[in-house]
Amino acid sequence: MSSVFRWIRRMPARTFFDWVPACAGMTWARATGIAIIIGFSPALSFAQENGAGVIELPGYSLKYSVQTSAGKSTIWRLWRDVENWKKFDTRLEYSYLDEGKNFQSGATGYIKATGAPKTRFEIVNLEEQVSFIERLHLPFHQTIDMQRYFEVDEQGTTTFSHEINFTGALSPVLYLFLCGTFKKELVLVMTHLKALAESQEPPPAQTNEAARR
Question: pLDDT per residue over 176-188, tens digit each?
Fold first, then answer.
């Protein structure tokens, strides 16, 4: 691991600062103090921005789940509407699939967060109305998988989950310094998505009437 640290320390500063904020999708305001990473100061702790309820999984991964009164179809419609992800992920300036691509496994596109560089992603392992992964491709053969899926709920309500998985040789480094930021962002994005989905869900009376038809 010390060799990895020495390698990053030798990286051109501009290269490092271009892609690290993109990994977290954070603005430069949220990345205040990121320069300390270059010096590996032990005083820096992104864990102070801990997102309540976010679970740390083995293998440099995070998970957050939310219950909602909205139906699965409503959540899925918002997930597949790539160009409007910014409606619930407010840090995004834009997101889109490449021309001619549909929301399916193998589709590629780009996202751009405020203050961060444009980042390429790929949709993988998509199972319609069940789950999909948004895979971010980063420099130095690093990837971040953002998996979204539904879980069975005994109360009859919709539970949707979001996992973030760091992969690549630099995963320990990225996870160490970006874990706290991702936790905070997970809670914010999922809370916004829940509110948006519930605001678009038809009232029960309309739902029952439609079912009778």
Answer: 888 888 898 899 9
Task: Tell me the C-alpha to C-alpha distance, in Å, between residue 187 and each of 10, 65, 184, 194.
Answer: 34, 9, 5, 11
Tokens 């961060």 appear where?
116
Q: Please state, in angstroms and as integers, the Cα–Cα distance from residue 127 to each residue in 80, 105, 160, 202, following that order.
A: 12, 8, 14, 25
DSSP secondary structure letters along 45-75: -GGGGPPTTPEEETTTEEEEEEEESS-HHHH
Element at 3 (helix H, strand E): helix 2-9
CA 18, 24, 26: angle at the middle one, nearest 5? 75
Give tens-digit pLDDT for 90-131: 899 999 999 989 999 999 999 998 888 899 999 999 999 999
How far apart, in Å, are the Cα atoms of 82 and each of 20, 87, 98? 23, 10, 11
Which uninterrupted H or E stretch holds 93? strand 92-97
Question: CA 127 to CA 148: how far, in whole Å?
Answer: 11
